[in-house]
Model the fold of this input.
Amino acid sequence: MPRILIVDDSPLNLKIISRLLGDDYEAIVAENGQTAIDIATQTPPDLILLDVLMPGMDGLAVCKFLKNQSSTAEIPIIFITVVSDSKDIVKAFEAGGQDYITKPFCSLELRARIKTHLDLKASREVLQVYAKQLEGKNRELSETLVKLEAMATTDYLTNIPNRRYVMGWLHHEVMRLQRNPGTMAIILADIKHFKRINDTFGHDCGDYVLKEIAKIMRGNIRDQDVIARWGGDEFLLVLPVTDLAGAHIAAEKIKLALEAAKFCYEESKLALTVTFGVVQFDPQLDIDANIRRADEALYQQKGACRHPM
Done:
């Protein structure tokens, strides 16, 4: 049953209005503004019928106070007044009132106005619930999209960026170089005889090798560098603001870290050979052409490399 707070300094008016509400509403009464505020803040009613002219704190002051409190701001307030001057009515609306009715009033009109504002309040509450649910769904969708994007751009095995990610990143980096000319290097790394590892020790061992090498490589590059699994047993590293000499130094650092690492799988020590194709990015060529250059450099190194890491 909706709770209606009736505020009037006249006990007779309180009794009359309470009787007019009948059994459809629970009537709560207050004979002054402060009592009305205490009741409304402690147990907020569904609607307030508020007399304008009261001694001490008048209805306008009560309304302004309640509308400034988050717990009572949404309670509909219908002013009850003996005045019908437009200026006074405007003041009532400016104070935050939703409606007004003049004394003496018709009981049918009063009940109709009460029902209208209670229905509006209920509709607003339903909309607020829907809005919160929609906000929650949008948040879930955004989080899901972020996860999907991460899944689409991350290699599931090594947990480093995949080919799709690094190609997108390269496109952005090339655009940056076009605006602000500089240097960039590409390193293509390959695990020599990786198929032999899979055939000899099984694919679980091959997965172990890929994950360990990716971890070591990622731990030996700068924060601004990018490493990605290019495909199969190949890794692509992109080094911004790096010339060819700097790229060779970076490759040598990774090589030494790999040489120092111990690769053991189920009590078997693994001897691995990792080769590097190092090139400085040529802005006169497109991305694919530059990667082919790195691949060609890698092929040459494979022929030159004979010692296992």
Summary: Residues 3-127 form a domain with the Rossmann fold fold (CATH 3.40.50.2300). The CA atoms of residues 63 and 83 lie 17 Å apart.
